[in-house]
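Please decode residue identities from the backbone states below.
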């Protein structure tokens, strides 16, 4: 039996509009939290190494030198995935400190496992949304560089608004770079590469280090997926810009 409405109830369409306005508006996320399987080694690494290498998210500036226990160049990586490239870069450059941000727990566990296996002391991790970390934890003009390798391309056109590399995000990120510091992006989706190039080129506080796309810097290792794609003739595009 259909329920009755009180005489003062608004028409159904108006009720729907009022309900929509009453709901809190969620910001667009550049990621989707997926439930991934955790291996026993990843779980053990989270338990044993998390307290030392996994920094808690806080709404206050992070003292980067204190977090690493030394004064050294600081490089931020956003979205390190399972951490294979991150660990390789950190192992090859022990004189540099690397702060990695990732939202997915299996990836955090996997990189902590590599930290333990390789005895890497120059890595710290934060498991949280990168935008909020940049807004609240990373001091302005504190970074010597930033890596964003193969972010989710959100390849369907209606999802392009979810792509991480947008003017507002880049403007926020640039504020965290020291003058002369670099921003290195890489993608294997050509239309995303072209969007990245357009967005970075339009940011007045950045200058391109190359004429268009850059050669892959030696410090960025080739992933197995990337090597397989290159053999099949797929492209990979690197962009290296510097803060003015």
């Amino acid at each position: 039996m259909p329920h009755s409405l009180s005489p003062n109830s608004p028409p159904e369409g108006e009720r729907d509009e009022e309900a929509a306005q009453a709901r809190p508006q969620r910001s667009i996320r550049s990621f989707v939290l997926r439930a991934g399987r955790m291996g026993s080694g990843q779980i053990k690494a989270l338990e044993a190494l998390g307290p030392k290498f996994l920094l808690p998210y806080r709404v206050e500036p992070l003292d980067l030198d204190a977090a690493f226990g030394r004064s050294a160049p600081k490089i931020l990586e956003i979205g390190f995935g399972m951490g294979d490239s991150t660990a390789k870069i950190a192992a090859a450059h022990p004189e540099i400190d690397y702060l990695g941000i990732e939202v997915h727990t299996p990836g955090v566990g996997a990189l902590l496992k590599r930290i333990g296996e390789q005895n890497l002391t120059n890595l710290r991790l934060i498991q949280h949304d990168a935008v909020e970390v940049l807004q609240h934890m990373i001091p302005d003009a504190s970074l010597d560089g930033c890596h964003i390798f193969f972010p989710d391309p959100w390849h369907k056109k209606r999802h392009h608004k979810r792509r991480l590399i947008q003017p507002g995000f880049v403007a926020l990120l640039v504020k965290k770079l020291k003058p002369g510091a670099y921003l290195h992006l890489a993608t294997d989706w050509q239309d995303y590469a072209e969007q990245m190039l357009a967005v970075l080129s339009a940011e007045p506080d950045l200058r391109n280090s190359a004429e268009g796309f850059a050669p892959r810097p030696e410090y960025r290792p080739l992933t197995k997926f990337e090597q397989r794609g290159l053999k099949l003739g797929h492209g990979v595009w690197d962009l290296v810009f510097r803060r003015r």
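Observation: The chain is about 35% helix and 20% strand.
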